[in-house]
């Protein structure tokens, strides 16, 4: 896939935590303006994949390319300035800052774009109502909204979300899925790590399945659907 057609490319990425070899030759591409979902059991390397892209767990070998340029191991602040947004597992908002201050911190990336705070609040009106509340006082669903809103305030063209439905009620999970689809409609490219396979497949354009730190399936949603039962049994069932 060409750099014009893809936003992100991983080529034979190996990532370690100390002596622990977590990613074993991770290779895949993320097509532009699509939702790619990365599925797999707990502990197989999904979060490490996102952290490797974001420079939080730099690969020991292999290459990460963004927009055709090699960004392997660059620090997170530089990647944010290039247009990569990251919503980590567990939200990791600033709990003692207000909603407005959380968004203001994200704006310090210096990137220009269309995601003004006013526009972010159009997507998340409840955050507008809570603008002067501290992050720690928000509900779990509101904190997840804030985590996504903060990423948008950084003006990304590519957004990575790690387990955004974790801990949310079913109704909020459905709303989250619709939100992610709306963001794709705004032109964002999205890489979604998600344990809620049902929600992820409802919105996916492309599916990646990881097992033991390597991609074991990569294809369009229709290709995944053809072998869905077998793939779920072998790689996704608990």
| Structural class based on helices, strands and sheet pairing | alpha/beta
Q: Could you spell the SSE succession in H and E letters?
A: EEEHEEHEHHHHEHEHEEHH
Q: Which term fits the overall shape? A: globular
Bin the strand percentage: 25-35%
Number of helices: 10
Widest sheet: strand ordering: 6-7-8-3-9-10
Distance between the termini: 33 Å
Number of strands: 10
Radius of gyration: 17 Å
Ranges where pLDDT stays below 50 over 5 or more residues in a row are: none
**Mean residue pLDDT:** 94
The main sheet comes to:
6 strands, mixed
Portion of residues within helices: 25-40%
Descriptive overview:
Helix 7 runs parallel beside helix 8. The model has no long low-confidence stretch (mean pLDDT 94). The chain is an alpha/beta fold. It is 37% helix and 27% strand.
Secondary structure layout plus pairing:
Elements: E1 6-17, E2 20-31, E3 35-39, H1 46-53, E4 61-66, E5 69-70, H2 76-82, E6 84-87, H3 99-107, H4 117-123, H5 125-129, H6 140-153, E7 158-162, H7 170-185, E8 189-193, H8 197-203, E9 206-211, E10 214-220, H9 221-226, H10 228-236
Parallel strand pairs: 3-8, 3-9, 6-7, 7-8
Antiparallel strand pairs: 1-2, 1-4, 4-5, 9-10
């Amino acid at each position: 896939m060409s750099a014009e057609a893809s936003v992100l490319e991983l080529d034979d990425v190996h990532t370690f935590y100390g002596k622990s070899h977590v990613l074993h030759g991770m290779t895949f591409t993320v097509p532009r303006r699509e939702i790619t979902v990365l599925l797999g059991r707990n502990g197989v390397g999904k979060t490490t994949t996102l952290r490797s892209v974001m420079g939080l767990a730099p690969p020991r070998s292999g290459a990460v390319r963004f927009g055709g340029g090699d960004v392997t191991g660059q620090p997170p602040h530089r990647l944010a300035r290039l247009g990569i947004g990251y919503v980590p597992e567990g939200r990791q908002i600033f709990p003692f800052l207000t909603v407005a201050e959380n968004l203001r911190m994200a704006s310090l990336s210096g990137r220009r774009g269309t995601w003004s705070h006013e526009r972010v609040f159009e997507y998340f009106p409840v955050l507008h109502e809570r603008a002067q509340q501290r992050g720690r006082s928000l509900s779990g669903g509101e904190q997840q909204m804030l985590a996504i809103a903060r990423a948008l305030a950084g003006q990304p063209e590519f957004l990575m979300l790690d387990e955004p439905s974790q801990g949310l009620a079913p109704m909020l999970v459905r709303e989250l899925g619709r939100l992610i689809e709306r963001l794709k409609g705004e032109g964002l490219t999205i890489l979604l790590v998600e344990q809620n396979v049902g929600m992820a497949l409802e919105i996916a354009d492309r599916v990646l399945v990881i097992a033991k730190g390597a991609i074991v399936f990569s294809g369009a949603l229709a290709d995944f659907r053809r072998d869905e039962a077998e793939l779920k049994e072998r790689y996704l069932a608990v």
